Amino acid sequence: MKLKKFNSEEAFVNDGVAVISEVIWNAQSEKGRAAIGVSGGRTPGKIYEGLGQMAAENQLDLLKTDVYLLDERMVALDNAASNYKLIKESLYAGASLQFLNNLHYFETGLGKYQASEQYKRELESLGNLQMDLVVLGIGTDGHFASIFPGYVEVDKGELVIMSETEEFEVKERLSVGPAVILNAKKILVLLKGEEKRAVVEELLSGQKKPQEYPAMILLNHLDLEVYYCE
Ligand code: 6PG
Prior knowledge:
Number of helices: 7
Helix content: 25-40%
Strand order of the largest sheet: 1-10-9-6-2-3-5
Largest sheet: 7 strands, parallel
Bound molecules: 6-phosphogluconic acid
Order of helices and strands: EHEHEEHEHEHEEHEHE
């Protein structure tokens, strides 16, 4: 694990934008298109906005970038808690509707069973089920995407899982499974604020079991970069 600490939000955002855009450029020059997985939450919004800004200035080609949501809350797509809405209004702010064709999202309006089947098909369009990069946050309980404590124990390698949490207002979630997340070429974890200091400590000590603290399984990845902003 590579840890980078920031004491200014501006540097955190600029570096986040830089590392993600570099992955996108490299993948596009190697194979024509890039595929990235994105999480929701409060931390990454400004970084997605920065990438959207680069695209608006023609420094980043989002038409050649497949963007996969890594998880979603079971709410309507225009609900304030929707990750689809977050990405649409940050990464794709100012972009025309055709850009949204490259956004792979959970169709929550279908209900969780059908939306989970629909998203499996979206993932199957991904060569080798491999994204070039996944951008994750980690909660203070150790969850990432919508993989909450207790899940890793029962992991059967599903592409998409249905999960529930008592920690948040929206309890029902859909998530890409850990196997697909760990299969990404690179993992970037974004952590911000005092309450996430303990998450950094947990990752550094690596003591907990993935069953109680799912983020522990990320430590198995060979290209794991953690950005922490105080
Ligand atoms: C989501 C997520 C989730 C998030 C963490 C951290 O949609 O909620 O994908 O896994 O990344 O809960 O969220 P914060 O950045 O808000 O702390």
